[in-house]
């Protein structure tokens, strides 16, 4: 194949956003993916632009709760016993990332990337004729009682300091915002700047269509080895600068260049119910249980939680069943029949920050992976940063905290 300026490895929402941003800078771009457009986590997420989610998963609070969660194989955080030994080194890094000083640093970095992503989203959508897919319905986070609400107040105080708007609700104000919630939810917080996309799969496929219409190539091929001047694939060597945006598979390709990056897989589960399953006014987050209910074009999606189980173990759809059972308890009017289950791989680094920037010792390869459950949220901000790096421009935020070399 002919040489191009940029070869993007990965046809998910991050890879395609990067491809469009690079194309808009006048670069010739080819996207390759071993399965094709939107074959992974980009298809099955909750569809949220979670700009208020500025805190790393690794935190003292999560570490305190982890032993209880890990004892419940269907709880918000689980590790399959067969995978426990393999993930132990990653869990040690996760524990170190939960130390207060590291949490503060990660939160500052994440806040900056969120602000950039939020500022770039609507211009990006407008440029590519996709503004009609954006929804601005907000998010309602609900709490079971005063104690759970009080435990979350410090995080809301921290959000207030960086200008994130929100409104605390009780009583009738909750049901006015979202009817049908069980009375156990006595407190809630509404965040108006938590946006969503009409349907994450439709959106990612639309990105691919816009990219192809602009002269870009999307090729089904598996990247097998990074080269000094490109990437080797099952269709032969492809010359050009490489953007590594292969999600949960990215670390395997990085290793072909001799670089070990501690990427793990948050296996996410969901069930998509028919569109009339419930009258959902906005995304509802059940933080204490680790899942959400969101409305997308194809229906009502119930999903979330974190299963650290790698790429090879078979899906455990009992986790999806457990979330659906809880959702019925929490919203008694929810009709739970007729659903379609899904499991996907979310790429997770121990400090909850993505890897953005040159691969150590391989300046021709730029990393754009490891966003965890925030790939859609941070896709346009990541695209702007990577396009800047490809064209010799200094990014608008300090990307030092995201350097792949930090590991």
Task: Tell me what the structure shows.
The protein has 407 residues and is of the alpha/beta class. 33% of the residues lie in helices and 26% in strands. The strands form 4 sheets. Strands 4, 6, 7, 8, 15, 16, 17, 18 and 19 form a 9-stranded mixed β-sheet that branches. α1 links the parallel β1 and β2 (29-33). The two termini are 34 Å apart. The model has no long low-confidence stretch (mean pLDDT 96).
Which features does this protein show?
single chain, 407 residues, alpha/beta, nine-stranded mixed beta sheet, six-stranded mixed beta sheet, 11 helices, 21 strands, globular
The low-confidence parts are none
Per DSSP, the total helix count is: 11
Structural class: alpha/beta
- Total DSSP E strands: 21
Question: Describe the biggest sheet?
Answer: 9 strands, mixed
Give the amount of beta strand, in percent: 25-35%
**Straight-line distance between termini:** 34 Å
Molecular shape: globular
Question: What's the helical proportion of residues?
Answer: 25-40%
Précis, in short:
The protein has about 400 residues and is α/β, with parallel strands linked by helices. It contains eleven helices and 21 strands. Strand 12 (about 230-235) and strand 13 (about 235-240) form a beta hairpin.
Write the layout of secondary structure elements.
Elements: E1 6-9, H1 13-24, E2 29-33, H2 41-44, E3 48-49, H3 60-70, E4 77-78, H4 84-97, H5 100-127, E5 134-135, E6 139-143, H6 146-161, E7 167-170, H7 172-177, E8 187-191, E9 195-197, H8 200-213, E10 217-220, E11 223-227, E12 230-233, E13 236-239, E14 241-244, H9 250-255, E15 264-273, E16 283-286, E17 291-296, E18 299-308, H10 318-330, E19 340-348, E20 355-359, E21 362-369, H11 379-390
Parallel strand pairs: 1-2, 1-14, 2-10, 4-18, 6-16, 14-21
Antiparallel strand pairs: 3-9, 5-9, 6-8, 7-8, 11-12, 12-13, 15-18, 15-19, 16-17, 17-18, 20-21
């Amino acid at each position: 194949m002919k040489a191009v300026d940029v070869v993007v490895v990965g046809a998910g929402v991050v890879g395609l956003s990067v491809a469009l941003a690079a194309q808009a800078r006048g670069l010739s771009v080819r996207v390759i993916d071993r399965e094709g457009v939107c074959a992974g986590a980009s298809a099955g997420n909750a569809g949220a632009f979670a700009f208020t989610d500025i805190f790393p998963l690794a935190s003292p609070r999560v570490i305190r709760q982890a032993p209880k969660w890990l004892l419940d194989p269907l709880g918000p955080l689980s590790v399959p016993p067969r995978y426990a030994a393999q993930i132990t080194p990653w869990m040690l890094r996760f524990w170190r990332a939960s130390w207060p000083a590291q949490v503060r640093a990660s939160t500052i970095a994440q806040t900056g990337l969120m602000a950039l992503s939020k500022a770039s989203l609507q211009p990006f959508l407008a440029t590519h004729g996709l503004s009609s897919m954006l929804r601005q319905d907000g998010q309602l986070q609900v709490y079971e009682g005063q104690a759970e609400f009080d435990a979350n107040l410090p995080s809301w105080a921290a959000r207030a300091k960086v200008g994130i708007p929100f409104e605390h609700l009780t009583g009738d104000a909750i049901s006015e915002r979202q009817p049908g919630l069980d009375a156990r939810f006595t407190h809630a917080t509404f965040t108006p700047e938590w946006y969503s996309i009409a349907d994450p799969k439709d959106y990612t496929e639309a990105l691919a269509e816009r990219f192809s219409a602009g002269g870009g190539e999307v090729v089904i091929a598996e990247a097998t080895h990074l080269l000094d001047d490109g990437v080797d694939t099952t269709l032969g060597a492809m010359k050009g600068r490489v953007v590594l945006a292969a999600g949960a598979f990215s670390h395997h390709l990085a290793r072909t260049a001799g670089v070990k990056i501690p990427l793990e897989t948050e296996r996410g589960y969901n069930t998509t119910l028919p569109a009339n399953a419930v009258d959902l006014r906005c995304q509802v987050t059940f933080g204490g249980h680790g899942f959400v209910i969101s409305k997308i074009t194809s229906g009502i999606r119930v999903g979330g939680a974190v299963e650290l189980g790698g790429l090879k173990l078979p899906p455990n759809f009992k986790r999806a069943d457990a979330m659906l059972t809880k959702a019925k308890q929490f919203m008694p009017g929810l009709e739970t029949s007729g659903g379609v289950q899904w499991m996907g791989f979310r790429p997770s680094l121990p400090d909850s920050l993505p890897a953005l920037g040159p691969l150590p010792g391989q300046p021709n390869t730029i990393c754009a992976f490891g966003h965890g459950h925030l790939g859609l949220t941070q896709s346009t901000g990541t695209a702007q940063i990577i396009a800047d790096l490809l064209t010799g421009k200094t990014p608008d935020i300090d990307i030092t905290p995201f350097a792949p070399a930090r590991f």
